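Researcher: I'd like a structural prediction for the single chain below. Treat it as a standalone chain; there are no partners to consider.
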Amino acid sequence: MTESKLKLDYYDIVREKLAVGPLQAPKHEKIFELLKVFWDEETVKVLSHFPKAGETISLQELVDKSGMEKKQIRKLLKKAIKKKTLSQIGKDYSLEPLAPGIFEAYFIAQGDTPENTQKAAEIFRWLFKNVEILDAEGHAMIDKNWSFMRPLRPIDAKEKLIKIDESVDAHSQVLPYELVEDLINKNEYFAKIPCQCRMIAEKNGEPCEVAPTEMGCFLTGRGAQAAASFGWGTALTKEEAIEYIKETEKAGLIHCTSNSMGGEHLLFICNCCSCHCGVVHPTKQHDFKTLTPSNFQPQIDTELCILCKTCQKKCPMDVITYQETPEEKMVINYKVCIGCGVCAANCKKNALTMNKVHDNVPPKVNKIGDKMFMETVRDLLTS
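Model: Treating it as a single chain, here is the predicted structure.
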């Protein structure tokens, strides 16, 4: 076997190890291009001795498996950790999945060279736009049936926008984990960070027309403290956090969080557009199930509606249309509506309310392999 073939095989070995749970690293030329941006040939040779993503390995084990000197291995791993393409957990090391996972940490931390960062942005943007592309084994980057995120109701929803449909069981009221205000009320520390999805689009000359990169993700708790202290984001007071959330709603962004009822949904909100988001865009364009619809549906009060069409313009999923005949009215396609509440939050006449029409309960935790999404990003960023 030739030396060039051996080098390619190390990247392929690592590629296979990056697959975990619903996430894959398809055997595609773009994936190999990305891995070569992240890791040089010497580093990927070391990584080929790692277990699968999410599992740890010690430095001594790597010495024993690779036959390389400890000092040399440590130097290579330190470089990868700086880029946030590898986790260090205590004294051990771990590979993490490409996206979600490395993608977020890599662009949040900005620890690589400008040239590499630009290359990675170009490749990730291509992958996000072609998320349905399969490799020879039928693998896409993400299982199209994996329910990763779900929308939260807007900040003023409980007081102004929500009604309970009579068909829903009486015991099922508006639950705390369905509201943005719950996330804010149960935390003391807040921060905002740029949107990584819109960031890579801007680097490719495809800026989002809905909102700028700066109007990005919202963090709470220790994650917010860390983001602000490391310079990855901007700390917010509670009052500033509420105003920021309102700004994202008015822009037409969807509040997306983990599809779980456990504590992870209290840690972050991705304020998402449907044109660039790696979760919402596949749902809209390719019928992926990555974004689970909420238990709510918008209802239009025709007596209050003045047909201004603001809801049509703001709807991120393009499910609201103007019907001229036989009578003038706005029509909602409930088959593809995700119940995000953007339309209701932007209706100046309060002609839209969010009715709770389902009682679907999310899982307690939503794991990627043995970790939750925020655990993966945390391990990368704090390494």
